[in-house]
Amino acid sequence: MGETLxxxxxxxxxxxxxxxxxxxxxxxxxxxxxxNQANPTVxxxxxxxxxxxxxMAELLGADKPVPPAIATVASHATPSMRSPDGRCxxxxxxxxxxAGQYEWYELSVQPGGALASEAHEPGTREHLSVLSGSLEVxxxxxxxxxxxxETARYGADQSHAIRNPGKGVAHALLVVVHPA
Length: 180
Hints:
By secondary structure, this protein is an alpha+beta fold. It has five helices and ten strands. Strand 6 and strand 7 (about 140-145) form a beta hairpin. The protein is elongated. The mean pLDDT is about 90.
């Protein structure tokens, strides 16, 4: 309820003091409710709802669907992309709402496969952790080879590539962190 109360109060451009006077609820109690540090009585909720001009159910968040405690994504529902050569597959593990901030992928690279990328926006970094096989990472002119269990952290704000120079399929986790 705290988040809903704060949002309604801010939408109406009311200070804690103004809402306190209109609802007949102490300013400290309002502050505690907004920070989810107090459970108001039904009488307090009723006074707040009346002062804000909303039904009690809206203030209590009854109109909002409750997200599950644990959300799962089935394997077949996980989107994926392939490299132009068809030898690299990126399974998109991160939620869409984080795109452009943080992204993480499961990467599979066939022998001889390469995932080459142009520069991302300035300040972007990638973190590549090899789970099986070996991979070669290039960022600008720098090149390094990674074995199982190793992680490379590198600038992705320049041309970069991930290659599989080995004889077997390589698997890795790739995290992309965009600048704030």
